[in-house]
Amino acid sequence: MAILKKSDILLGIDDPREITIETLGGEVYLRPLSSSEVNEVVGIESKGFGLFDAKAMGRNADATGKVNLAKVNEAAAESKYRAIFLSINNPKNDEWSMEELERLHSDQIEELYENVMRISGAETTEADVKRFPED
After folding, report:
1. Is residue 12 part of a domain?
2. From residue 14, how far is each of 4, 50, 77, 80 by CA, in Å?
């Protein structure tokens, strides 16, 4: 194996990849998000989940929570736009504004977001879902 330099390791986020986006009818360059950027995007999305209170009582737990579905939807959309914005604004593309991204169709946003998260190593896989406990 080769010895990697810091510049080799950090190159990933500055290396846009040509990705076919079927809903756009062509290719666009997207760059992977850094781990910090992925954390930012996940943090934006988690703002919509509200507060949950759990109390352990021996082997039993009592939990309550309130979820505002409008806030969940708003936070999910904001996180998707932010992820795409960070990825698509790279030296191989024209610069995009947030307002321009918000004018895209929802299926285009979904496909762009899925690809950004996939190339960033942050997508949820079927194996992840299968490992999630049912109870």
Report:
1. no
2. 16, 35, 25, 20
pTM of the model: 0.78
Answer whether residue 1 is part of any domain.
no
Question: Is residue 13 one of the residues assigned to a domain?
Answer: no
Tell me the per-residue pLDDT of 5-59, one tens digit each, with 9 for 90 and over: 776 666 667 789 999 999 999 999 999 999 899 999 999 998 888 776 767 666 7
The domain in which residue 45 lies consists of: 18-124
